[in-house]
């Protein structure tokens, strides 16, 4: 008798449960994207600000060292950094789909 | 159209971020998880459904850690159980009751109504501690072996057996006290055939 009673007699209907889970998941992912975007923009803003502050003192140094070859090297480094960043955030870009 | 296995769906979720595959996993397992949590929460359906939602969100986050050597449903139940424990510890509102509300019908003697039997089974869990509820439900409702329960709950096998035995004695006592027409002595541990090895 007790063994029978302990078995499931009635399973819950799906009703709106699946929808509620998927909506909650979508909300969480949206929030994650917003946080990523905000931290990214904040980081970029501070980067630009820093570059602006450093631009004037560094100008004489840049004039001295910025040749065609160093400019190409810098471009390559920036390109590689952008590639690494894209690879790193690949998972997050998948969330946009 | 072929039915995809849990492993195939999980792979699609992890590798392709396939939300439809995750939706299918939720559809497939939601009833079992919710029924399990309703038992653990002694019939508090709203809290059980909240916890079931949290369980599936955690599953989505941790799906890449699932080892296909364990059944997906077993892994899912272990996450649900951990969520239940977290909740009882966090809210510190869990309490063992000495009595459960009287069932409306002549209870299990006339087990004609599945809904009433389910409600009674859920309410009876209020008489037990959280680990005992889980042991009993995993053994008799979910149908896991004692070894699986021991691994899932991180308890020694002997402890699982004694918890089940003790919990059944307590419930049997309650049933005997509330229905004198019952004269059963079912206090054995779960069926031997479910023991692995």
Describe the structure.
The complex is a heterodimer of chains A (97) and B (197). With 97 residues, chain A is mainly α. Chain A folds into two domains: 14-59; 67-97. Chain A has helices spanning 2-6, 17-65, 68-88, 90-95. Chain B folds into two domains: 1-94, Rna Polymerase Sigma Factor, Chain: A (Orthogonal Bundle); 100-197, Orthogonal Bundle (Arc Repressor Mutant, subunit A). Helices cover 63% and strands 0% of the residues of chain B. In chain B, helix 6 (130-142) packs across helix 8.
Strand content of chain A: under 5%
Oligomeric organization of the protein chains: heterodimer
According to DSSP, the number of beta strands of chain B is 0
| Gross CATH architecture of the largest domain in chain B | Orthogonal Bundle
Write down the domain tally of chain B: 2
Number of helix segments of chain B?
A: 8
Low-confidence stretches of chain B: 180-193
Q: What composes the largest sheet of chain A?
A: none
Overall structural domain count of chain A: 2
Radius of gyration based on Cα positions of chain B: 18 Å
Order of helices and strands of chain A: HHHH
Written as H for each helix and E for each strand, in order along the chain, the element string of chain B is: HHHHHHHH
Question: Could you give a quick summary of the protein structure above?
Answer:
The complex is a heterodimer of chains A (97) and B (197). Chain A is an all-alpha fold. Chain A contains 4 helices and no strands.
Secondary structure layout:
The complex is a heterodimer of chains A (97) and B (197).
Chain A: H1 2-6, H2 17-65, H3 68-88, H4 90-95
Chain B: H1 6-16, H2 19-40, H3 45-62, H4 72-91, H5 114-124, H6 130-142, H7 146-153, H8 157-178
Helix pairs in contact in B: 1-2, 2-3, 2-4, 2-6, 3-4, 6-8, 7-8
Keywords:
heterodimer; A: 97 residues; mainly alpha; 2 domains; 0% strand; disordered C terminus; B: 197 residues; Rna Polymerase Sigma Factor, Chain: A; Arc Repressor Mutant, subunit A
